[in-house]
Amino acid sequence: MKLEIDTHTHSIASLHAYSTIDELAKGAAERGLAGFVLTEHGPALHGGLPHPYYFGNMAVLPDRISGVRLFRGVELNVIDDAGGLDLTLKYLRALDFVMAGLHEACFPPDSKEVNTRAMIAAIENPYVDCISHPGNPAYPADYEEIVKAAVRCGKALEINNSSFKVRRGSEENCRTIACLAKRYGCLVSCGSDAHYRADVGRFDEALAVIVEAGIDGERIVNLTLDSFAEFSKRRRAERKAA
Ligand SMILES: [Zn+2]
Ligand SMILES: [Zn+2]
Fold first, then answer.
1. For residue 151, how far is its CA from the centre of ligand 2 (angstroms)?
2. What is the whole-number distance in angstroms between the Cα of residue 201 and the centre of ligand 2?
3. Angle at which helices 143-153 and 170-184 pack, to 10 degrees?
4. What is the pTM of this model?
5. What is the CATH number of the domain that holds 30?
């Protein structure tokens, strides 16, 4: 199985990443991808940077760079357990892909109950399309309830390739999530979480977990350019209607 789109990448605008958007696009092209999603961190992670205007001005970017399709996204920070996010909603309507995730600087790890409630509230937020790295072991959670919420809301859960390296102990959690996703028919997205150009499209370990769980290709939102464009189109319409 080969994925055509990388749904999770960061440029230098994310402040702890090391490649420009052009370099990420070259990385995607070199990896043979059809496209990638630029998903800078929401402003709460680094004291208000990038400025919200960064996300509001993304229309100036071309749809194709270095022969690959650029999708405009974000990786928001979950900031409470009631569905709160760190970017003005008006900017989210225009984006192609809105991820939200738990990061230590914005949502200190809490009890299993609170972490679960925070992830489910984010899933239920009509502006969110996908939860990034839900298998992070820093945030013990009830994965069955999270998967069921994602199915109920038509949202995706990410199997994040960088988790195997930077979030130690993620592997078993990702396997559990993938097995539950298979059982309940949950949508998944497979992202590299690249913070450097050479890592764009690097998702072998995450994809192996998805394949091993037996998840159907139709449930992987970024399997092909068309499947991702279709998911994005549906979610954009749902965000506009929210
Ligand atoms: Zn993240
Ligand atoms: Zn990320």
1. 23
2. 13
3. 40
4. 0.97
5. 3.20.20.140
What pLDDT is attached to residue 166?
87
Q: What is the mean pLDDT of residues 75-92?
A: 96
Percent of the chain surpassing pLDDT 70: 100
For every residue of 157-206, DSSP letters joined together read: EEEETTHHHHSTTHHHHHHHHHHHHHHHT-EEEEE--BSSGGGTT--HHH
Is residue 122 within 8 A of residue 100, CB to CB? The reply is: yes
* Distance of CA 9 from the midpoint of ligand 1 (Å): 10
Domain encompassing residue 224: 5-241
pLDDT tens figures, 8-60:
999 999 999 999 999 999 999 999 999 999 999 999 999 999 999 999 999 99
pLDDT at 168: 84
Calculate how far, in angstroms, residue 153's C-alpha sits from the geometric centre of ligand 1.
21
Q: How far is the CA of 212 from the centre of ligand 2 (A)?
A: 24
How many domains does the chain fold into?
1
How much distance in Å is there from the Cα of 102 to the middle of ligand 1? 7
Angle CA 200–205–208, to nearest 5? 120
Which contacts (CB < 8 Å, 24+ apart) does range 109-115 have? Answer: 109/138, 109/139, 109/140, 110/81, 110/139, 111/140, 112/140, 112/141, 112/142, 113/142, 114/81, 115/139, 115/140, 115/141
Paired strand residues for 37: 71
Q: Are 76 and 39 a contacting pair, CB within 8 Å?
A: no
Q: What is the DSSP letter of 81?
A: T
Split at pLDDT 50, 70, 90, the class of 165 is confident
